[in-house]
């Protein structure tokens, strides 16, 4: 039985004050979220603060990105080992905003995935199609290509120690959620693909859905057989909204 994981991706949002308030609100309500695993992914600079505030709690934290490099002359980069130093459990890799706005391709994403794992972080590998790709009927091909780059570099077993997030680009920040069945179809496709390579990995890996998840639609999404939780953007910036989603998974 896979546990439900709800992770908040705060993106480029927050201030010292709002981070303190948000974490205090999440901590206060986390115990009521049943068996749901909860994580938050703040902007890098707030990770030390979040690690202090969440130490000893059941809420985990992670980063929104990670360098593919370990150290050296890579101005502006943050390594997986640095994130590990501040207690990160997760690192998001290949978010569609990184892919689209910063031209990060499948191979680069796979190297970030590898770097995260090497330092003991759990990568949250984001995959998903654009609206154009969905309309062309190539959703499965796109998702498969994104997964294959990681499998080629790291092997199928590596996905058993990772989290996958299916985030259709057209549903991100648009208020337009994939229907539970639309999401389930892609999640089932991902799991079947992995099962074709290694059944144990497919059974184990948590596959999250992301894209306009809210308290009002989380329960029906999480009730689908292959949806093991959510990666939450906008609604993770408000403690009550985020906790309502966490509860839907409990
Ligand atoms: P929204 O929940 O704001 O649609 O964002 C989803 C997302 O991109 C999470 O990584």
Give structural attributes.
alpha/beta; binds 1,3-dihydroxyacetonephosphate; TIM Barrel; 8-stranded parallel beta barrel; single chain; 250 residues; globular
How large is the radius of gyration?
A: 17 Å
Number of domains: 1
CATH class label: Alpha Beta
Helical stretch tally: 11
Q: β content, as a range?
A: 5-15%
CATH superfamily name? Answer: Aldolase class I
Order of helices and strands: EHEHEHEHHEHHEHHEHEH
Mean pLDDT: 97
Q: How many strands? A: 8
**What's the story with the biggest beta sheet?**
8 strands, parallel, barrel
Describe the structure.
It is a single chain. The chain is α/β, with parallel strands linked by helices and 250 residues long. The chain has a single domain, classed as Aldolase class I (TIM Barrel), CATH 3.20.20. The protein is 43% helix and 15% strand. The protein contains eleven helices and eight strands. It has helices spanning 16-30, 47-54, 80-85, 96-101, 106-118, 131-135, 139-154, 180-197, 199-204, 218-222, 239-248; strands at 5-9, 37-41, 60-63, 90-93, 122-127, 163-166, 206-210, 229-232. An eight-stranded parallel β-barrel has the order 1-2-3-4-5-6-7-8, surrounded by five helices. Strand 7 (206-210), helix 10 and strand 8 form a beta-alpha-beta unit. Helix 1 (16-30) packs parallel to helix 2. The chain is globular.
């Amino acid at each position: 039985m896979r546990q439900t994981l709800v992770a908040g991706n705060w993106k480029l949002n927050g201030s010292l004050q709002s981070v303190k308030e948000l974490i205090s609100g999440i901590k206060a309500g986390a115990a009521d979220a049943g068996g749901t695993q909860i994580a938050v992914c703040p902007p890098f600079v707030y990770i030390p603060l979040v690690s202090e505030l969440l130490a000893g709690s059941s809420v985990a934290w992670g980063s929104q990105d990670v360098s593919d490099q370990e150290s050296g002359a890579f101005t502006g980069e943050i390594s997986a080992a640095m994130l590990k130093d501040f207690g990160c459990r997760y690192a998001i890799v290949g978010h569609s905003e990184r892919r689209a706005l910063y031209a990060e391709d499948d191979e680069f994403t796979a190297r970030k995935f590898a770097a995260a794992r090497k330092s003991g972080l759990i990568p949250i590998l984001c995959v998903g199609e654009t609206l154009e790709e969905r309309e062309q009927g190539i959703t499965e091909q796109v998702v498969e290509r994104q997964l294959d780059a990681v499998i080629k570099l790291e092997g199928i077993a590596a996905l058993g120690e990772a989290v996958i997030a299916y985030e259709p680009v057209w549903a991100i920040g648009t208020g337009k959620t994939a229907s539970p069945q639309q999401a389930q179809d892609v999640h089932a496709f991902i799991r079947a693909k992995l099962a074709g390579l290694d059944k144990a990995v497919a059974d184990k890996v948590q596959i999250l859905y992301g894209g306009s998840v809210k308290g009002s639609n989380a329960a029906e999404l999480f009730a689908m057989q292959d949806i093991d939780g959510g990666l939450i953007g906008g609604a993770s910036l408000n403690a009550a909204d985020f906790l309502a989603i966490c509860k839907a998974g409990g």
